[in-house]
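queue> pop job 88
queue> type: inverse folding (structure -> sequence)
queue> payload:
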């Protein structure tokens, strides 16, 4: 692919270097949802993040569109869950792992991996049959992380130094 020199200069000037290396799986925290620790699978083939949610309900509070949902954080324990709420960012059509298009509610929330924190868009979907309750897509990793696919949990548990929990 050829770029005009002005386009190339702009790309180089706006590119940020990732500040960490993550493995094929990582521990993440979603502090705005009250999640201190959740196993996530990195998926460079997926554009967006996906989070396992059930009983998803759209509602309006203080004039803002919101969603509430049940989050099951443990793969093997269906009795471990908590109710979460977040502002609704929108509804996206996402192609599922089976190749079928699905409409999904999308939220924006902070994520913590290791000692790094930034905001990501996350789609809500039923991942009950999946081993990992969250997929970390490439748009969330852009400018933040490089993936070392043959290793796992390189960043350790999320460091919740902000005292939010």
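queue> result:
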């Amino acid at each position: 692919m050829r770029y005009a020199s002005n386009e190339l200069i702009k790309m180089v000037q706006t590119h940020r270097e990732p500040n960490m290396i993550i493995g094929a799986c990582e521990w993440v925290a979603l502090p705005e949802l009250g999640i201190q620790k959740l196993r996530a699978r990195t998926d460079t083939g997926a554009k967006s993040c996906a989070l396992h949610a059930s009983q998803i309900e759209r509602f309006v509070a203080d004039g803002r569109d919101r969603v509430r949902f049940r989050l099951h954080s443990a793969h093997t324990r269906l009795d471990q869950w908590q109710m979460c709420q977040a502002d609704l960012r929108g509804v996206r059509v996402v192609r599922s792992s089976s190749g079928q298009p699905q409409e999904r509610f999308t939220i924006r929330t902070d994520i913590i991996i290791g000692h790094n924190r930034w905001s990501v868009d996350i789609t809500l979907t039923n991942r009950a049959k999946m081993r990992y309750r969250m997929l970390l897509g490439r748009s969330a990793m852009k400018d933040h992380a490089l993936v070392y696919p043959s290793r796992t949990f390189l960043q350790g548990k999320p460091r919740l130094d902000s005292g939010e929990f």
